[in-house]
Amino acid sequence: YQRAIKVMLEQPPERIDEAVIASTFHNLGGLARTLGRLDEAKQFYDRALAYRERVLGADHALVAVTSNNLGAVLQQMLRCQEAVPCYQRALSIQIKQFGRDHSITASTLCNLGCAYSQLGEHRLAIDCHGRALAIQEAVVGNEHADVATVMHNLGNALAAAGYGQDAARCHWRALGIWARTVGPAHPDIAATLHSLGNVYRGLREPQAARQCFAGALRIREATLGPSHTETARTRHCA
Length: 238
Prior knowledge:
This protein is mostly helical. It has helices spanning 2-9, 18-34, 38-56, 61-76, 80-98, 103-118, 122-140, 145-160, 164-181, 187-202, 206-223, 229-237.
């Protein structure tokens, strides 16, 4: 990708296709993010965003895609105060382009909700996940894996806000959907079981918490391996 950009930028001005350059920077951002090179990923997404704004206009759907991905990188870097405006901008564009009830809009609402959770803005997080849930249920139905993802995130936000019983209900519903859509031994089930264990621990139900952590640990040892950081985190809780 980097070589391709170098070659493109060396072309005469009339032959430079800035839309292609923007896409290449965007793809480089995704590659760098996958490799864990977050500083580079941010730089690539910044450049992709600048090109796309200039070539496509500020309200183009691809500008929203890059803004959303930039927000995700910033969130991974624990720079959530900067991630939130990126998600908000992506959301604003997507509402204009696709409407308030589109699954793409719901996905960005979920990302924004998770960023708010990391900032301790739990009520804002609950609102985002609640809106995303209503959209996904209307678009893909009550038994889709995307609904389970939103239920998991909503459960975490409710738990952080002190609504343990409501959080438990969200996680149990997510578990039911996961079991029917991805099978009983999927990493997503382990993640929800781990979260549910934390909820029960907060509700002072130690036996239920231990059962959840034990189930999560079995799945994570089988799917991620005994030395994985997520496995170790669950083992510590169990």
